[in-house]
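Late entry, evening session. Most of the bench is empty. Finally got around to the prediction I had been postponing all week. Sequence below, unchanged from the version circulated by S.P.
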Amino acid sequence: MRTSSSSAPVAYAAMLPYEHFIRSRSTLPVRAAIGKELMLTGDPAFGPGSIAVFASVSGTTEDIIEAIEFAKAKGAYTVGFTGFGDSPFAKSLDAALITEPKTWPFDIPLLLLSTRLLAARGEFEGYEEFAAELQTVPEVLLEVARQAEPVAEAFAERNKEADYHFLVGAGNLWGFTYLYSMCILEEMQWLRTTRVHGAEFFHGSLELIEEDTSLVLFLGEDESRPLMERVVKFAENYNKNTTILDTKDYELAGISARFRGLLAPLVLDTVAVRISKHLERVRNHSLDLRRYYRVVEY
């Protein structure tokens, strides 16, 4: 069986943690892909026997619906997550999995899908325990949000005049780093950003760091953590405006130590949501304001 994840850029970024998870634990071929590019370039491994996984909050994103039709034409079985069961997105899928309306992110269902798939292949131990622990996640994330509030407020106040932010992440947080940079700071706040993988930071990108650059580092608890610890050490010497967002700072009551790393994207998304709301306040710039996205034809 071949598994492929295909979607518009925001969903593509959200799929990256699960591509990373499967690649690091399984012999199952998996690829996160931007649908538009896949449709133009193709993939000889994609076709009958493949599973294509999609996500859409509204269920109306045209690029994703087009990618679903492409996947079905190639013979792939299509599965998708959305909040609206009667949407064009849901109706075009072979299997539509419906969450509560407007639920985002889709990390919990994607975690369940990924871990269940590998458990069935004998490549993930403790699925039943993990699934049971995920039941506590809403309360866990509420406490994360409470704890993150002073961190988020301080970041926004310190950087309310900054128009450039440098974001670094790795492992299962690379997709989140990409998503937060492009889809939140750029799209929703019109801020200039650079996003770079922790392993690539020292291959040139570090030359952009000055003493007062807003440097935001996302640290998780998977095998890639040493890559980010190296960036932290650099930042301690050359930057005075570093924000370290580290999942180790949060208790995550009820989540076993061996599963904590899998929740990193959800935990830091919760922290980042509070940062976004405080940026919205101090900059007087609504997170709903757009110049072009779904405003003009392109």
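Two things to note before I forget:
The first strand starts at residue 2 and ends at 7.
The chain is about 45% helix and 15% strand.
Will write this up properly tomorrow.
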